[in-house]
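Subject: Predicted fold for M23 family metallopeptidase, 307 residues

User T.R. writes:
Posting the sequence so we have a shared reference for the thread.
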Amino acid sequence: MVHPAFFAVLPVRLSLWVWRRASARRLLLAGLAASMAILSFLGRPAQAAYSVQVVPSSPALGDTIAVIVQGSGQPPTVSARGQDYPAYDLEENRFRALIPTSPLDQPGRIDIRVNGDRGTNNIAVGLRNRSFPTQSITLSPGRAGLEGTDYEFDRMDALKALTTPEKYWDGPMERPSRGAVSSLYGLRRYYNGVFAEDYYHRGVDYAEGNGAPIYAPAAGRIALVGRVADGFQLNGNTIGIDHGQGVTSVMIHLSGFEVNEGDFVEAGQLIGRMGATGFATGPNLHWGLYVNGVAVDPVPWRYDGVE
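User M.O. replies:
I've generated the structure tokens; pasting them so everyone works from the same file.
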């Protein structure tokens, strides 16, 4: 005979049994869900910290490498060859850093690192070799015009070191002279038969008559007006333009000025007159384009433009 107490506790035991089965089922389902989530995560390819574009994708010596970064947060740090390059805002969540190259660089692999709030990207780009013309020059001992002054060098160094946050240029740059091109960027030289290891022609030369007009290749602020009378013996009369974000133009050998320091100019605006001041053999304009202190080839900036 079943004791009456059995019937009294039976509903409780049944409830406990049902509750335990339900709990076990819930735990099993939760475990399966967690396992599936882990497997899904492990099977998913790793996401890059930023979306990064390198332009041009196959640069050559003398090119300017634009590293365009897309991602939220503060501007990332872009580094290559042991040096950091500032990244500037192009628009919301879009940044750009400029890496200059020159004929003095070694062709081959360049490792670019983008590091910021979202993590780190590592990109490799190949820097192609490029042939540059050579020129032999014979200099007589003590030839005048070869020495610059400390004042001249200091002012030029300060111009090339500018990193104004604003971007003044827009689109491809313009030809600064109507004269014929007389010397190309990157030309290497032999002086008295000895190869000048550290020398390359740091710009493009244009030849025209004395007093011919010189125009701003792009918008910017006149950051330098250097005069022979003030010590600009090597470059002669000089105009320096700050285009913003580490990009500057240098116009040398001028005969006269049409602007003053501090003026803002537009692309194509008259800024000076061609001359033969400084170390020059005749009337010409030397246009040097500097990116983060390095003289780069202006030609891609004229025809392709750099964002």
